Amino acid sequence: MSPSADDLAREAIREFQHLLAQSLRKIRHCLGQLKQEQIWWRPEPGLNSIGNLILHLSGNLNQWAVSGITGAHDARQREAEFQAEQSHNRDELLSLLEQSVERASAVFQTLSAADLLESRTIQGFSVSVLGAMAHTVPHFVGHTHQIIYLTRLQLGEKYQFDWSPDAERNGVPI
User: Fold this and answer.
1) What does the alpha-carbon distance between residue 93 and residue 96 come to, in Å, rounded to a whole number?
2) Which structural domain range is residue 23 located in?
3) Number of domains present in the structure of the chain
4) Which of 64, 68, 146, 161 could pair with 136 in a Cys bridge, judged by C-beta atoms 3.0 to 4.6 Å apart?
5) What Pfam families does UniProt report for this protein, alphabetically (predicted)?
């Protein structure tokens, strides 16, 4: 028996939700190892801090996966995400990001196969709902790896790995 379009849609949605949840877990793990000044440290003046990346991830996820898909008002101030310095503490950043992931996941959960094919205009781009999801989730994963790198760069040998090949596998490592 071949899977239905709804079966495929549900599986794609589960995978997108899983990737967001795994990325959030990894970001939480990094933040737990850092001091406030390390969260806002920039390797060079023109580069982003972990704090900037978290603000950016939240803004992008809300713009593409929440407002973009549902048609809700988008109040994103993209440039402010990169200009912020010491504007939020660790708990505020984590709460902001967790709320963004929860909202996006809730939106994803409401979607049917037909919804995934509908067109939206987001940030001036015409995309399908599936295209919006396929944009924002890998974007989230990519910046998660930057956050891991910036954490490791600052902590060096003191960095505590979250997962190793010998550890129990809780989902697909990203």
Assistant:
1) 5
2) 9-73+86-158
3) 1
4) 64
5) DUF1572 (PF07609)
